[in-house]
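Need tokens for this chain, all 165 residues.
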Amino acid sequence: MRRVSAVLALLASLILASVASVQAAGPDHSKLEAFTVDFAAGQSCAFATRWDFPAGGNELTFPVRENGDQLVRQISSAPLTVTNLESGESITLRGGGRIDQLFHADGSLDLFARGTLYIALFPEDEGGPGMYQYRGHYEVDIAADFTFTNVRFKGHVTDICAALT
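Here are the structure tokens for all 165 residues:
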């Protein structure tokens, strides 16, 4: 009888462990695809620009937390090519790093980056307008209307607009 009880206890603990692992599911994995973004003159630089990102890197989308927050992590080493659409001049900037985006239920998000991050700031953003490559540690709070506030940064900054004039 003790042997049967021990076996049943073992089976019960295995079942509970498998249920707990299903409940604590890991993130969804996907590959980052190539994309292009155009910025009108005056939006970030005095002239119109285009960002071209090649495919590469990974995205991890974690399950939504009980409070409604959701973490999306991007890890990439893809370069960015930025083109001045008025002059045709372009530069290619080396990338690499990790970006954590913590989305909140109210539509706002917190962004934490380590490594290289490219930012296009609009006139209404703190520190905007401008277009920059940040290398180091970067944190920013982004309101539901996508306004950047509470920018914190430690590292090296390259002014992309100035590099393309």
